[in-house]
Amino acid sequence: MSGGADATQRTMLRHLVDYGPLSRPELGDGVGLARATTSAVVNALIRRGLVAELAAVQEGRRGRPTTLLDLDDEHYAVAGLEIGVDRVLSGVYTLRGRELLRTERVVESESVNPRGLLRHAQIALREALDQSASGARRLLGVGVSVPGLIDASTGTVKYVPSLGWRDVALRAGVEEALGGRAPVLVDADANFAALAERRARLRAGQEASSLVYLTGTYGISAGVLADGRLWRGGRGMAGEVGHLIVDPHGPVCVCGRRGCFEARAGLPAITAEALEPSTRRGGRADLPAAIDELVIRARSADQRVVATLTRAGTWIGRGAAALAAVIDPRVIVLGGHYARLVPWLLEPARRAFAEAQLVPGDDVPALEASAGADWATAEGAALAVLKSLTEGEQALPKGPTGQTGAEVR
Fold first, then answer.
1. Which domains does the chain have, with CATH numbers?
2. What does the alpha-carbon distance between residue 153 and residue 214 come to, in Å, rounded to a whole number?
3. Each residue of 322-352: pLDDT tens digit?
4. Residue 71, SS3 per DSSP
5. Which pTM value belongs to this model?
6. Is 137 helix (H, G, I), strand (E, B) or coil?
7. How big, in percent rounded to 5, are the helix, strand and coil portions of the chain?
8. Contact 138/405 with Cβ under 8 angstroms?
9. CB of 218 within 8 A of CB of 162?
10. 62 CB-side CA count, 13 A
11. Helix (H), strand (E), coil (C) string for 307-329
C-alpha cells in the first residue's frame, strides 16, 4: 500500500477515535474526502479489522436507516498500566474503549524500589493479558504511566519524587516482561489522563483542544493539550507543576524544597493534615482508603476535614491561576482523586482562581471536574497506543489474521 493511502487511512481512523460513531457521509465530510474515496478507505480499514459497521439507525420518523461506522470492537486490544506509590492498576480495552478487564494490586511500602514495583507491574500485566477476552485478540500495545518526569521518546523515568526513582529504564523492563511481543509506550500519568479526558469531551461535544488536566493523585502533574495535541516542552518533560514554589514559607515537600504546590494542595498533604496518624500507614497515606475516609467525614460535616479541603481548594485555585497565566487554556480539569473531593474543593478553588485573574470577567478559563476519576490514566495509556497508530508512530495492522501485535486470549 502506498504511503499516501496509508496516511489517508490514519486520518480517517483518527477522526473515528475522536468523534465516532459516524455515518459514511459524516466521516467523509469530517476528513474532507469525496464519497467514493471515503468508501474505498473505509473498506480498507474494515479489511484491517480496525473499523466496523454498526446496526443501522432510523433518522426521524420517515428517514432512511443509516449505517454508522466506529472502531472495530472484536479483533484487537490495547492495554494501559498505571504504576503508583501504593498500587498498580492495569486495564485491557477494545479499540472502542470497552473494558475487557481491570485489575488493581496493592503495593506495600517495601516494594516501591524500581525492581519491586516492576515485578508487581509485570504480574498485573500478565494477569490482564491472560484473562482479557474469551476469544483470541491481538494486542496492539501497552501504555505505561508513572507520576513524574518521563522521557517518553526513550521510555526512561528521569525522576519521580514520590517514588525516589531516577533514570529508570521502564520501557525496557516492560518490553522484557512482554517478551517483545507488542510495542510499549511510557509517559507521565497526567499526559495519559489528558488523552482520556480529551476523547470523552470530544464525544460529548465539549471543549477539548486547549486543556490542562491536573492529576491530583500521587502528586500534582499537568497534562497540557494545545490545539488538541499533548504539549511536551523542549525536552519532552513538561507538566511537572507540583514542584512549582507557591509558598516560599510553606511546608517541606517530598522533593526536599519548601512550599511546593504539591506540599500545599497534593493529596498526601491533604490527608496528612485532615486525618489522624492512625489513618495513615508507614508515614505515607494509603490514598484510596484515605480518600474514602475524607469523603465520609466531609459528608458528615467534620470541621477539621472540611476546613482542610477548603484551604487545599484555595491553593489549587491559586496554582491553577498561575498555570492559566502562562498557558492560557480554555479549561482546567481537576482529575484523579481530586474528582471525588470536588464537592468540597471546587468552589474555594474557583473563588481563588477568579481572584487571581489578571483580566477578570466572564472570558476566563473554566475550572471543572473530570468525569474520569481513578481509571482515567490507565484508560488514557491504552488510548495512547491507538493514537500511536493514527499518528504513524507504529504500523497499521494488516488484518485480524496478520502477524502484527501479540495474541491475547
1. 3-71 (1.10.10.10), 76-192+376-408 (3.30.420.40), 207-371 (3.30.420.40)
2. 22
3. 999 999 999 999 998 898 999 999 999 999 9
4. strand
5. 0.88
6. strand
7. 45, 20, 35
8. yes
9. yes
10. 0
11. HHHHHHHHHHHHHHHHHHHHHCC
